[in-house]
Design brief:
By secondary structure, the protein is of the alpha/beta class. The protein has 7 helices and 11 strands.
Length: 223
Amino acid sequence: MSTSQPLAVVILAAGKGTRMQSKKPKVMHELLGLPMINWLLSTVEELSPERVVVVIGKGMDDVAAAVSPHECVVQETQQGTGDALRAAAPTLKDFKGDVLVLLGDTPLVSADTLRGLIAARHVDAVTGISVLGVDLYDPDGYGRLLMNEDGTLKAIREHKDASDEERRQTIVNTGAFCLDAKRIDRWVGNLSNDNAQGEYYITDLPELAAKDKIKTRVALAMN
């Protein structure tokens, strides 16, 4: 399948710096003198996207300034990654093509890795999602990628929601997705927060897609 479709990128950047014991938003912590989100934006720009949308939290004016001139939308409730994608969805209403959904605190992902993720979504006409995974020796704490016998993705199970058997799987979710833009509204509208965290996860999208007979593929990154 051709991968020459238009590209949009949604960067999820509303996370606070709580785990870093900081009042500074997580993505504004610096690496070699630049906020980590700016490293990611530099990589994204190598892909020549038609638009880039950054999802921020309330009062994150410093993040908005750092990513300018790219568009920002505010995630009002901050109830998980699915809620963040829902906040961005109206900006993609008339967009047709591929949508990369990336985490703003993953500054070291390469353009080639993202190209591989996009290509995985175009393996065949019934693939609507691709997910970037990595095989870890110690996957503790990460969401697991649960595979079907045909090599497609069955589900992503967050560590807190996974069974003991599922936790023995070593291929984990990195948080990067490529989605068919025309289906995003339907899928995010059907997300549920019936899980241990009470949040809306983009990791539930493969199971929602399967109900529409749409497949999800995995692109493996080198660890």
